[in-house]
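Lab notebook, design round three. We kept the backbone fixed and only want residue identities now. Task for the bench partner: fill in a sequence for the structure below.
Input structure tokens:
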């Protein structure tokens, strides 16, 4: 396994770590009284006054880049699984697009915090919340079909492969079973399971040992 391959493998756990660091730098939102839209604008002012805000944004951008690298690396390792790997790649790309769309909306609200009314701020943040639900669907597709491809190609062990398929199915089923949800917090635990699976398989693939395999002709002659 080449050093560049290990870089691709470890990009998964790097995504998880960077996303958590970026969220920690932003900090918890303060509660207060007022309309939901005004609370959103007050939160943007709090972030603007945070000396770590720029660093947090940079870290979150790096997190998205790391996830992009991981999707590309993992699907390249699963390419012999045919359409299963291709579907996993499509799910991963869709998840990346959902992430970037949500990030663009958040940036827009932050930049225009002094110019937009509270009602518009609430509407934009609501679109961002809906994007999180779409992201759960795309991540579920990514994990489900990547795990199925890994089981077929024996890239991962049976436990991780079956666990990933269960997590992917759960993420999709939870979203489908709720119809039109009013609270996105309900989807937090399936998302955490997806993040945990990404971190575990990233470490599993990153720490795999190099194995020398003898050519088939040599093995046959030795037999």
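Proposed sequence:
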């Amino acid at each position: 396994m080449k050093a560049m391959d290990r870089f691709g493998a470890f990009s998964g756990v790097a995504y998880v770590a960077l996303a958590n660091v970026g969220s920690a730098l932003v900090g918890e939102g303060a509660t207060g009284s007022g309309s939901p839209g005004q609370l959103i604008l007050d939160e943007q002012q709090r972030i603007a006054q945070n000396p770590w805000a720029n660093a947090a944004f940079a870290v979150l951008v790096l997190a998205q880049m790391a996830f992009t690298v991981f999707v590309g690396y993992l699907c390249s390792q699963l390419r012999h699984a045919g359409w299963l790997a291709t579907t996993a790649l499509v799910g991963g790309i869709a998840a990346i697009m959902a992430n970037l769309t949500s990030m663009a909306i958040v940036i827009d609200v932050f930049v225009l915090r002094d110019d937009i009314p509270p009602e518009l701020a609430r509407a934009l943040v609501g679109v961002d919340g809906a994007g999180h639900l779409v992201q759960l669907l795309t991540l579920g597709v990514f994990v489900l079909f990547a795990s199925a491809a890994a089981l077929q190609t024996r890239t991962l062990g049976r436990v991780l492969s079956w666990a990933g398929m269960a997590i992917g199915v759960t993420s999709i089923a939870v979203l489908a079973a709720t119809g039109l949800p009013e609270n996105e917090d309900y989807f937090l635990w399936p998302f955490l399971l997806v993040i945990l699976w990404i971190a575990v398989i990233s470490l599993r693939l990153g720490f795999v040992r190099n194995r020398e395999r003898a050519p088939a002709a040599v093995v046959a002659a030795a037999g």
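Keep this in mind before ordering anything: Confidence is low (pLDDT under 50) at residues 211-223.
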